[in-house]
Amino acid sequence: MFKPADLFDLIQTEHAGIFDGCAYAWEALKKIEGYIAANLKPDLRNQCEGRAYIGEKVFIGEGTIVEDGVMIKGPAIIGRNCQIRHNAYLRENVVIGDGCVVGNSSEVKNALLLNGAQAPHFNYIGDSILGHKAHLGAGVKISNVKMLPGNVTVEKEGAPFDTGLRKFGALVGDGAEVGCNAVLNPGSIVGRGAVIYPNVFWRGILPANTIAKNRGEIEVTVKRPREAG
Q1: Measured between alpha carbons, how far is 105 from 120 in angstroms, rounded to an integer?
Q2: Farthest CA pair distance, the chain
Q3: Of 101, 138, 178, 208, which is the most buried if we count CB atoms within 10 A?
């Protein structure tokens, strides 16, 4: 499930060229900067609600709403009919498809969002790809750098495989759901239609149409009145 087509419907992006020549989907992360440099034609066709900072190397498509307090540094290509909500921070080398949501206080850097992807509340997306209609719950963070030295690895045929990337967050497949306050560790790969429950600390590969959830039990006891005093 490492090939681009294993995770993503490339019809659901105008930027499938980012994946050209990629044997592994994460290799596209190294190509985002060059793709934007070759294809960017700065133009702002959006509507602003309030005041936003938009850099010179930015394209925004028709029907997209940019709300008050947004900062889009660029270079960036943002599609049509998106919502870039209050205080979102889009850093360098961001490609966002049509109908996407980048929400309140969410930060995006060196990332590709396919059409319909959503990161609506307090999210961090660094060096990552979100598939068609992938959804991050409130507070989901994608960690993109190992605490220890060295490149990010993924498990391949039972052994660590060097991705060649010092910074690599996650590949979140089409239609995948990541619950509130979950954390995806560097090199996480989430298959199409997979679900990660809230508060899960995820590492590794989650196959398509599977669910990851914590097993911790919650104890419920009778509420006793407090003594006066």
Answers
A1: 9
A2: 74
A3: 178
Reading the block at residue 32, the tokens are: 């985002």
Residue 220 lies in a domain: no
Would residue 219 count as lying in a domain?
A: no
d(CA 205, CA 207): 6
Q: For residues 82 and 102, what is the distance between their CA atoms, to the nearest angstrom?
A: 8
Using the CB atoms, write b or e for 75-104: b if 16+ within 10 Å.
bbbbbbebbbbebbbbbbbbbbbbbbbbbb
Structural domain for 37, as ranges: 4-212
SS3 219: coil
Instruction: Decide: 97 and 80 in contact? Cβ < 8 Å.
Output: no
Task: Determine, yes or no, domain membership for 185.
Answer: yes
Q: Is the link from the previous residue into 186 a cis peptide, with omega within 30 of 0?
A: no
- Answer yes or no: is pLDDT of 138 > 60: yes
How far is residue 218 from each of residues 24, 29, 174, 214, 221, measured CA to CA in Å? Answer: 40, 40, 32, 11, 10
Run of H or E residues at 41: none
Residue 78 lies in a domain: yes
What lies within 8 Å, CB to CB, of 119 at 6+ separation is 101, 102, 103, 106, 108, 113, 125, 130, 136, 140
Answer whether residue 45 shows pLDDT above 90.
Answer: yes
- Structural tokens at position 51: 């005041």
Tokens representing 55 are 């850099």
Question: Residue 229 has which token pair?
Answer: 């005093």
Percent of the chain at pLDDT > 90 equals: 91
Closest CA to 188 of 21, 2, 20: 2
What's the domain count of the chain? 1
- Tokens for 218, please give them: 């919650």
